[in-house]
Task: structure prediction
Amino acid sequence: MIPAGALAAGITLAALPAHALECRLALALAVDISSSVDAAEDRLQRSGIVAALTSPEVEAAFFAGDLPVALAVYEWSGRYNQEIIVDWTMIDSRAALLGVAETVAASTRSHNDFPTAMGYALGFGAQLLARSPDCISKTLDMAGDGQSNEGFPPQNAYREFQFEGVTVNGLAVNAADFEGEVGLIAFYKSQVLFGPGAFLIVADGFDDFERAMRRKLERELAPPAIGALPQVENAG
Result:
């Protein structure tokens, strides 16, 4: 006969998962610093990320689940011009979240004269996510104000790099009059969004970047039912 204590211990061990996950989401933010983004616009991007991360709504969303979120931030432009601003950081406390925000606030762009090589930027993001903490899901955010104009296109990146289990969302900064539904937005919808539940947030110029980033983060950090929302959300 098996002692009651031993039986209870066996049931407890059987109930534990074979491999405990570290976090519920690995989230990588990719920021466009190509030559189409001037110094003032770059400052609006960085300050927008900081303001979004420290907003009450986003802070509450980060800590809404039982498991924390792992966060990384990098900037991108030309083929070989990607730089990590914040490497993988577990957002398991308010201090950790504020630390990331402070690092972004203190950062300066690494390049300012290279084109928009989004395929390479996506490949870099895939490699970054490949070494992320072990999370339930993985998301890559591509923010930018223009279509890819150097190197291979986004669709090639999805074929050549490991994107299984990764969702790629977009934040399109619709700053040019000629872009609209036939330009930048159409490019993001057809070429950039990837994976289940992928969506696009549109910022009405860089002055609207903070609002768009905050809204995007709220949506990404919300419960899974949020996937029922429309694929594209315009500024407003």
